[in-house]
Write a structure and sequence with these properties.
This protein has one domain. The protein is about 65% helix and about 5% strand. The chain contains four helices and two strands; from the N terminus they run αααββα. It has a two-stranded antiparallel ribbon with strand order 1-2.
Length: about 120
């Protein structure tokens, strides 16, 4: 099946989706390592708030990969389909609006996920 740009639904192809998954895994690994260090070395609990950043990064990567949609490209009205190595501008105003809405949804979901992970990390004994 050939991938194509769908306003507010798909603005990256297979290779860009793979990059987002890698970012998700990297963020997850950093989150877990950071949390383990904070717990194992009995570092004061307020420092556990630091897991917010890699947890949010991880969520950004996984959510963008799952949705086949890059939030950054959505905000700046670009698409990387077809994957020619460069981003193509999205010309239609209605399409740009749909892309920005999807990009904002991704950011909000990612921040919310980072916040939830931080609460769990902070609450752990």
């Amino acid at each position: 099946m050939k991938e194509r740009y769908i306003p507010g639904a798909c603005n990256i192809g297979i290779e860009e989706t793979r990059k987002r998954k890698r970012i998700g895994w990297i963020g997850l690994i950093i989150t877990l390592i950071l949390w383990l260090i904070l717990v194992l070395f009995d570092i004061p609990r307020p420092w556990r708030i630091a897991v917010f950043f890699p947890a949010t990064l991880s969520a950004l990567g996984f959510i963008q990969a799952r949705m086949h949609f890059c939030a950054y490209l959505g905000f700046v009205s670009l698409s990387k389909i077809p994957e020619t190595g460069k981003a193509e501008p999205v010309e239609q105003t209605e399409y740009r609006k749909k892309d920005r809405i999807k990009a904002m949804q991704i950011v909000v979901l990612s921040v919310l996920t980072g916040f939830i992970v931080t609460i769990v990390a902070y609450s752990y004994p």
